Amino acid sequence: MRVNWSQYADIYLRNTGYEPLYVRGVYISGAAFWAWSQCPNYLYPGQSCLTRVEFRPWYEGYFSGALRFAFPNGSIVVELYGWGVRW
């Protein structure tokens, strides 16, 4: 990605089970990554929610991070990677 530009990716979390899913939180880490989440505390069966992740490098080089959906009994982690380049 070009330095000081940004790119978005939409990530959906869906409850495919038969019970409500309690979402403790949505967390992002990594120097060049930001997230906006519309996930409520409870996802009911068949319901989904959107989290938008933005990658915006401010210098050249490799960036890594993670998006984590936290639940009472564990979490789902989406690893994030990107390169900042000058054109």
How would you describe what is shown here?
The protein has a single domain, classed as Immunoglobulin-like, CATH 2.60.40.10. The chain is built from no helices and 8 strands. A hairpin with a 2-residue loop joins strand 7 and strand 8. Helix content is 0%, strand content 60%. The chain is elongated. Strands 1-6-4 form a 3-stranded antiparallel β-sheet, with no helix packed on it. The protein has a 3-stranded antiparallel β-sheet with strand order 3-7-8, with no helix packed on it. The protein has a two-stranded antiparallel ribbon with strand order 2-5. The relative contact order is 0.34. With 87 residues, it is an all-beta fold.
Largest sheet, strands/sense/barrel: 3 strands, antiparallel
Low-confidence stretches: none
The number of helical segments is 0
Specify the overall morphology.
elongated
Proportion of residues in helical segments: under 10%
Average pLDDT taken over every residue? 97
CATH superfamily: Immunoglobulins
Level-2 CATH architecture: Sandwich
CATH topology: Immunoglobulin-like
Quick structural overview:
This protein is mainly β and 87 residues long. It contains no helices and eight strands.
